[in-house]
Amino acid sequence: MSQAKLDSFTAPLKAAGFDVVTSDTGVVQTTSNTMSYFGTTEEMANRVASIIQKKHPAIAIEMRASPSIPASARQIIILNLTEDAFN
C-alpha cells in the first residue's frame, strides 16, 4: 500500500482531531473491515466510522466491542481494513 493512499484515508480522521497510528507490522491479511473498541467507547467508535463512511461510503465496517481491549486502553480503537478498502 502506498503512503499516499494511507495518508488520504487517515486525513479526515486527523482533521477531526483524532491521533492516528498506522501499522501493518505483524498483522495477518484481514478478510473483512472491522472496528474493535472498548465497550464504553461505542459512541466514539461510531463517530470514527461515520467520518470514514462519509469519505468512503462503499466501505462496510463491522463494529464490535472487544473484550480483549482492557479498560486502561479504552481510548484506543482498532481498525482492520482489507486492501480493497483503499481502492
Largest sheet strand order: 2-1-3
User: Major sheet: size, sense and barrel closure?
Assistant: 3 strands, mixed
The overall pLDDT, averaged over residues, is: 89
Any idea what the radius of gyration is?
A: 13 Å
Shape: globular
Number of helices: 2
Label the structural class.
alpha+beta
Share of β-strand residues:
5-15%
Fraction in helix: 25-40%
Give the low-confidence spans. Answer: none
Please report the distance between the alpha carbons of the first and last residues. 10 Å
Number of strands: 3
Q: Give the H and E element order.
A: HEHEE
Describe the 3D structure.
Strands 2-1-3 form a 3-stranded mixed sheet, covered by helices on one side. The longest helix has 14 residues, at 42-55. The chain has 2 helices and 3 strands; from the N terminus they run αβαββ. The mean pLDDT is 89. The protein is of the alpha+beta class. The termini are close together. The radius of gyration is 13 Å and the shape is globular.
Quick structural gist:
With about 90 residues, the protein is α+β, with helices and mostly antiparallel strands. Helix content is about 30%, strand content about 15%.
